[in-house]
Amino acid sequence: MRLMVVACLFLAQSAGPSLTFEVASIKPAPPDDGACMRHVEGGPGDPDPVHVRYTNTSLMNLLGDAYPAACRINGPAWLDEVRFDMAANVPPGTTKPQFRLMLQNFLAERFAVKVHHETKEFSGYDLVVMKGGPKLTEAAATPASPPDMKGLSTFRNGVSVVRMTAIAQPASALARIVGSTLNQPVADRTGLTGKYDFSLEYSPRSELDEPGIADAIKTLGLTLKTTKVMRDVLVVDHANNVPVEN
């Protein structure tokens, strides 16, 4: 009987990667000069799956990646204000769900994060294809550059303008960006299953003559339809704004 217990324990421990990063560090990001946007590279699904790097990221961003099913995260304002640079080594073979659990464990260990979930009804949007069809460019089977989505914030005639560039991204990634910009839940209902290259230019506040993101996505043959949705809300019960040292 004892041999059977030991064998079962061995199988459980060797069944897959540990749900912690092999090595991980986090430190305050340099002062924001307005030109350094949040950037993420590496991890499962990326050409470099065993390394992940977050640049100029907030704890709100990290929570969003750790709990992607949550349509909203409620917590103190500093979660979206204090910025960090984070790097971690990911065990080979780690899946995206396992990576999310690793990130959750990392946040609990370094920031003492404690959360709970609530379900609430929200006014939201469905991202759908317009009558004329999508105007998206299919990404190459082997992209010249790694899959990425990044935005550069500039000013034109005193108006804030975001220039968003995406490489080999699904429509669901665009839905997340639209939802984040509008601060409303946006579900991908396009039925598009490929990866696409696209660019957008919009004002996050729909200022003056600059289009907002809801107008900008129409250049891609996509639009928004209002709807009511029951969505998961992540409530941050506790988090430290200074992480445990590396």
Describe this structure in words.
This protein is an alpha+beta fold and 246 residues long. The chain folds into two domains: 18-112, no CATH class; 121-231, no CATH class. 21% of the residues lie in helices and 39% in strands. It is built from five helices and twelve strands. It has helices spanning 2-13, 59-66, 96-111, 171-182, 213-216, and strands spanning 23-28, 39-42, 51-58, 70-74, 83-89, 114-129, 137-138, 148-156, 159-169, 186-188, 196-202, 222-238. The strands form three sheets. Strands 1-5-3-2 form a four-stranded antiparallel beta sheet. Strands 4-12-6-10 form a four-stranded mixed beta sheet. Residues 1-17 have low confidence and may be disordered.
Could you spell the SSE succession in H and E letters? HEEEHEEHEEEEHEEHE
Q: What structural category characterises the helix and strand content?
A: alpha+beta
Name the average pLDDT. 86
The beta-strand count equals 12
What level of helicity do the residues show? 10-25%
Please compute the radius of gyration using only Cα atoms. 20 Å
The overall number of domains is: 2
Annotation field: number of helices: 5
How would a crystallographer describe the biggest sheet?
4 strands, antiparallel
Poorly predicted runs: 1-17
- Report the β-strand fraction as a percent range: 35-45%
Distance N to C terminus:
42 Å
Shape estimate: globular
Strand neighbour order, sheet with most strands: 1-5-3-2
